Amino acid sequence: MSVPAFSPEGAAESALRAGLSLDSDRHAVVAETAHHIITVISRLRALDLAEVPPAFAYRADSQAR
After folding, report:
1. With left for phi above 0 and alpha for psi between -120 and 50, is residue 44 left, alpha or beta?
2. Over 60: is that where the pLDDT of 64 sits?
């Protein structure tokens, strides 16, 4: 799954909407970081976890099989 690139301008606009002021030299770095985070989250959302038991069913003292 391909995620569109997050532009430096988009990073600056998002920061302003969130009430943050970014120096112009930080826009590209923030855009790259945001793109990476969005890419990882999209991969996690694509996982099929239908057969995975919920976390409350896990017992730390049980042996892995």
Report:
1. alpha
2. no
Q: Are 5 and 28 in contact (CB under 8 A)?
A: no
Q: For residue 41, which amino acid is it?
A: I
Give the number of other Cβ atoms within 10 Å of residue 4's Cβ.
8
pLDDT tens figures, 13-47: 999 999 999 999 999 999 999 999 999 999 998 98
List Cβ neighbours of 39 (8 Å cut-off, separation of 6 or more). Answer: 3
Structure tokens at 51: 């057969």
Look up residue 29 and give its DSSP letter. H
